[in-house]
Amino acid sequence: MIQIKRVYEDYATADGYRILVDRLWPRGISREKGRIDEWIKEIAPSNELRKWFNHDPEKYPAFVKKYKAELADKDDILEALRKKAKKEKITLLYGSRDLVHNQAKVLMDILRS
Asked: Does an H or E element contain 39, and which?
């Protein structure tokens, strides 16, 4: 099972294995406070894409397309996450305030397909 959650939300035992999928470490969150098990910044959007998108909901459809293109050569990481999700619950953590238009949502959809 795969779910997403904002890294600033409280930890819950139901989260399972918690993976940060942001390129930048979230402000004010220590590894211990965030209870982050793993940080996989390699699957986060590139700095260029992240800055271009700037969490603008109008750019989201184009962002999804461009982000999927960036993930095309990350099959090994994606497959490892799929295997992990078959064995245990994983929570993809992100820092964005936008709960709908973010890379964790895109990544979750890709992993579930």
From this structure: strand 38-39
Query: How confident is the prediction for the chain on average, in pLDDT?
Result: 94
Query: Are 27 and 46 contacting, i.e. CB atoms less than 8 angstroms apart?
Result: no
Within 13 Å of residue 75, how many CA atoms lie on the same side as its CB?
2
Domains of the chain, by residue range, sit at: 2-112
Residues of the chain falling short of pLDDT 70: none
Give the pLDDT confidence of 57-67 residue by residue, as tens digits: 999 999 999 99
Three-state DSSP class for residue 9: coil
Q: Interhelix angle for 103-112 vs 60-71, to 10°?
A: 60
> Where would I find the H helices in the chain?
31-34, 47-53, 60-71, 75-87, 103-112
- pTM given for the model: 0.93
